[in-house]
Amino acid sequence: MDGPNYYEFFAGGGMARAGLGPGWRCLLANDFDASGARPNEM
């Protein structure tokens, strides 16, 4: 996938991903709570 990349720190519900849309590629999403990181898994 071509396009801009981003890192999502303290991902939580993955709202940065939702706001940026499908044209962006998440290279890193971290969270200390496994249930909070789950929406960022591909």
What features would you describe in this structure?
With 42 residues, this protein is α+β, with helices and mostly antiparallel strands. It has one domain (5-40). 24% of the residues lie in helices and 21% in strands. The protein contains two helices and two strands; from the N terminus they run βαβα. Strands 1-2 form a two-stranded parallel ribbon. The longest helix is centred in the middle third of the chain and has 6 residues, at 15-20. It is elongated and about 30 Å long. 7% of the residues are buried.
Q: How is this structure best summarized?
A:
Helices cover 24% and strands 21% of the residues.
Distance between the termini: 14 Å
Number of domains: 1
Determine Rg (CA atoms, Å). 10 Å
General shape: elongated
- The helix tally amounts to 2
Order of strands, main sheet, comes to 1-2
Topology (SSEs and partners):
Blueprint: E1 5-8, H1 15-20, E2 25-29, H2 34-37
Parallel strand pairs: 1-2
Summary tags:
42 residues, elongated, alpha+beta, 2 strands, two-stranded parallel sheet
